[in-house]
């Protein structure tokens, strides 16, 4: 397996003490190995990246920044730009642009709750 659990990498880089890896290994090592064996490691990483972005984007917006998740990039070109070209052990899971907005935008308002919130199944209004 080419990828290692985060705690193990942290110890190797001096970011964590060995005890962190020892405590984390029974769970994260097994989880990573299981996902890798089932071919789901990349999918899991993408989901983790999306979760992280779901917190980053509103936090940045609260601080007056503009954000946007992106899709359709050339992974090899992105890897070159960020200095990890040739690294087969690393993948680009998600790109989020972050910067100052070009213009102030008015909030467009909200859709009715019944259009977005469902009870039990899609199409059954939750309210």
Q: Choose one word for the global shape.
A: extended
Strand content: 5-15%
Most strands sheet: 2 strands, antiparallel
Total E-strand runs? 2
Euclidean distance between termini CA atoms: 48 Å
**SSE string:** HHHEHEH
Mean pLDDT: 83
Number of helices: 5
The poorly predicted ranges are none
Q: Describe the strand arrangement of the main beta sheet, using strand numbers.
A: 1-2
Q: For the CA atoms, what is the radius of gyration?
A: 20 Å
Label the structural class: mainly alpha
Give the proportion of residues in helices.
40-55%
Which secondary structure elements does this structure contain, and how are they paired or packed?
Blueprint: H1 6-12, H2 18-37, H3 41-62, E1 66-70, H4 75-81, E2 95-99, H5 113-116
Antiparallel strand pairs: 1-2
Describe this structure in words.
By secondary structure, the chain is mostly helical. Helix content is 47%, strand content 8%. It is built from five helices and two strands; from the N terminus they run αααβαβα. The chain has helices spanning 6-12, 18-37, 41-62, 75-81, 113-116; strands spanning 66-70, 95-99. It has a two-stranded antiparallel sheet with strand order 1-2. α1 (6-12) crosses α2. The radius of gyration is 20 Å and the shape is extended. The termini are far apart. The mean pLDDT is 83.
């Amino acid at each position: 397996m080419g990828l290692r659990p985060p705690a193990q990498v942290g110890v190797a880089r001096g970011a964590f003490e060995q005890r962190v890896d020892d405590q984390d290994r029974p769970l994260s090592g097994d989880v990573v190995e299981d996902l890798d064996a089932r071919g789901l490691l990349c999918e899991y990483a993408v989901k983790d990246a999306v979760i992280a972005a779901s917190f980053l984007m509103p936090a940045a917006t609260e601080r007056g920044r503009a954000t946007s998740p992106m899709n359709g990039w050339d992974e090899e070109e992105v890897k070159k730009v960020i200095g990890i070209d040739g690294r087969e052990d690393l993948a680009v899971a998600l790109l989020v642009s972050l910067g100052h907005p070009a213009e102030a935008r008015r909030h467009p308002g909200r859709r009715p709750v019944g259009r977005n919130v469902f009870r039990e199944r899609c199409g059954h209004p939750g309210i």
